[in-house]
Amino acid sequence: VVDVIGIKSVAQHEGSKASKLMRELHLLARESMSKGMIDHECCYCWNDSVLLLAMWDGKIPSAYRILSEVSDLKRRIDNEIGKSYAISVKGRAFPVDFNGVSEPSRCLVLRSSSYAMGNCFLIEAEAKKLKLKDDWYVDSRLSKATGVQIGGSFSMKLLPSQESREVMRFRGYIPPYPTNRSNRSGVKRAAI
């Protein structure tokens, strides 16, 4: 998840400017997905947030590529819309086919893991409670793939097991991944 900071305040003080910024965010996310972000399966936008779904094969280089794409999007959001923060959590995606029905519908079911989304909200709440202002909060299972100096961490119980896990914090951006983007095989992957 990438969230833009301060949209609520803009809405309260500048009215329609907040709606304009949110529409620009949605357009930027759509453009980014259509022109790149090949390691991401889909993107969902609402209000001041962008939810990205990528399938991870469990290998560090793949996670690095995925997080690097998120970092590129976050950099554009920071430069073109406003300051943002990102939360990256590993989870499991829902299947595309629901009971054999895959026809288009007016109902959009998010494929992202309910637990991973719930964990994003829990991490966001904990960071606010701790008065943290970092750019990134990354599930410790993904943190080796960031390629950056971790700025600290905090422990918290995450869904579904309620086991305590470390959430790594850092500022800045993830360096671009080298342009060789091979290994897009059908290996079983987890969602991040």
Give a nutshell description of this structure.
The protein has 192 residues and is an alpha+beta fold. The protein has helices at 7-14, 16-35, 60-80, 114-129, and strands at residues 2-4, 40-46, 49-56, 84-88, 136-139, 152-158, 163-170, 190-191. It is 34% helix and 23% strand.
Can you give the mean pLDDT?
Answer: 89
Q: Describe the largest sheet.
A: 8 strands, mixed
Q: For the CA atoms, what is the radius of gyration?
A: 17 Å
- The helix content is 25-40%
Number of distinct beta strands: 8
What structural class do helix, strand and pairing data support?
A: alpha+beta
Q: Approximately what portion of the residues adopt beta-strand conformation? A: 15-25%
What sort of overall outline do the alpha carbons produce when their principal axes are compared?
A: globular
Describe the structure.
The radius of gyration is 17 Å and the shape is globular. Strands 1, 2, 3, 4, 5, 6, 7 and 8 form an eight-stranded mixed sheet that branches. The protein has helices at 7-14, 16-35, 60-80, 114-129, and strands spanning 2-4, 40-46, 49-56, 84-88, 136-139, 152-158, 163-170, 190-191. The chain starts with a strand and ends with a strand. Helix 1 runs antiparallel to helix 2. The chain is α+β, with helices and mostly antiparallel strands.
Could you outline the blueprint of secondary structure elements for this entry?
Layout: E1 2-4, H1 7-14, H2 16-35, E2 40-46, E3 49-56, H3 60-80, E4 84-88, H4 114-129, E5 136-139, E6 152-158, E7 163-170, E8 190-191
Parallel strand pairs: 4-5
Antiparallel strand pairs: 1-3, 1-4, 2-3, 3-8, 5-7, 6-7
Helix pairs in contact: 1-2
